[in-house]
Design brief:
251 residues; alpha/beta; Rossmann fold; 6 strands; elongated; disordered N terminus; disordered C terminus; magnesium; HAD-like_sf
């Protein structure tokens, strides 16, 4: 029997199941978006126009606001600032949704965690805001659907975080009381406060420069980490373990 099968994964705060946000939690959305933004900007600049190219990339990333700017509004602002970007909003949004998928990567430490949870039969799921088709394409591209079928996407479910109903539905799917569920996410309001209000324990992934909002008590975050890799030791795992390497990656 391998070490992967015998080594026990321990969850903190007396929890026995996990729920994860998707974007900038189970995959690095910011990194994927930056890759798309650079590819998009390169369509409109000669390679010699380095300053102009970098300026457009910075603008594309800034107005995205970590994905919270509606795509119709987003491309309205893009075309206002860069008239050379042609096409209808519907066309631009469809191309964006198609192209950004190519920049999404399942990081080794995330694959490692999912493998360990599966090996130890620790239930987990995903609760994410967004369009059902786009979010499920991300999940399928990452291969996360091979590890869990407890997946809740707001537009499909009919309510979005921080609405309590989507958290409670996920807890029911996991067949666990909310007090035994550890929710991991990067958004203080949607993820951490949302999970806290239904009695879940929480881990905030603090991506700089995002700061904790003044209107929410910092006490709703039971634990705080800077990166997903920092989460592993809290779960009794160690990033240096031999199992965590690129050879584990599926496909």
């Amino acid at each position: 029997m391998s070490d992967l099968q015998t080594k026990k994964t321990l969850l903190p705060l007396q929890t026995s199941a996990l729920l994860f946000d998707l974007d900038d939690t189970l995959h690095h959305r910011s990194k994927a978006f930056y890759g798309w933004a650079r590819e998009f900007a390169q369509r409109y600049h000669d390679p010699a126009q380095k300053a102009e190219l970098e300026g457009m990339v910075d603008y594309l990333v800034e107005i995205d606001n970590h994905g919270y700017t509606p795509r119709d509004e987003y491309f309205t602002r893009v075309q206002r600032n860069y008239p050379q970007v042609s096409g209808s909003h519907e066309q631009l949004i469809a191309e964006y949704q198609r192209d950004v998928i190519g920049h999404i990567v399942l990081e080794d430490e995330i694959l490692y965690l999912l493998q360990k949870l599966q090996a130890q039969q620790i239930p987990f799921g995903i609760v994410t805001n967004g369009e059902a088709q786009q979010q499920k394409r991300k999940i399928q591209t990452l291969g996360i659907d091979a590890f869990t079928d407890c997946i809740f996407v707001s537009k499909e479910f009919g309510a979005q975080k921080p609405d309590p109903s989507i958290f409670l539905a996920a807890a029911q799917c996991l067949q666990k009381p909310t007090s035994e569920i550890l929710f991991v996410g990067d958004n203080p309001e949607f993820d951490i406060w949302g999970a806290h209000q239904v009695g879940m324990k929480t881990v905030w992934i603090h991506h700089a420069p995002r700061q904790w909002p003044e209107q929410i008590s910092p006490e709703v975050a039971d634990l705080t980490v800077r990166t997903f890799a920092d989460l592993l030791p809290l779960l009794g795992l160690h990033p240096g373990d031999a199992e965590m390497n690129g050879k584990n990656k599926q496909g």
